[in-house]
Write a structure and sequence with these properties.
73 residues; mainly alpha; flat
């Protein structure tokens, strides 16, 4: 079982290196115009109330604790 975990961790290390290389490659190939377009899209998305939803006034931890108490009670 331990060797399976080691293999899994090693696979993710290799994948992380490859993903980082891909990220660097894509960012260095990106034009200023493309970067501006993506930035505008992200800013528009952040300002879209339908995606953000109503403003939260609590973290929800109190409600979560109520559910845990019911399940374990």
């Amino acid at each position: 079982m331990r060797s399976e975990y080691k293999k899994w961790v090693q696979q993710w290390k290799v994948a992380a290196d490859k993903l980082e290389a891909q990220r660097v490659s894509e960012l260095s190939a990106m034009t200023d115009a493309h970067a501006c377009k993506i930035s505008e899209w992200l800013l528009d998305m952040a300002g879209n109330k339908r995606l953000i939803g109503p403003k939260r006034i609590s973290s929800g931890l109190v409600e979560q604790q109520k559910y845990f108490m019911r399940w374990h009670g």
